[in-house]
Amino acid sequence: MIYLILIMNNDEDIVILQGGSVLAVSSGGGHWDELMLLRDGFENYDVRFVTTSKDIADVNGVELFSKIPDCNQNQLIRSFLCFICALWIVARLRPRVVISTGAAPGFFCILAGRLFGARTLWIDSIANSEELSMCGQLSRTVAHECWTQWPHLAGTNGPRFKGSVL
Amino acid sequence: MILVTVGTQLAFDRLIRAMDVLAGNLGVPVIAQTGDGEYAPKNMVVRSRIPPAEFNELATASDLLVGHAGTGTILTASKFHKPVVLLPRRASLGEHRNDHQLATAKAFEKRAGVFVAMEEGDLEKAIREAQNFDTSRQDYHASSNAIQNSLQEFLKQWVH
Question: Shortest Cα distance from B27 to chain A (angstroms)?
Answer without folding.
Answer: 31
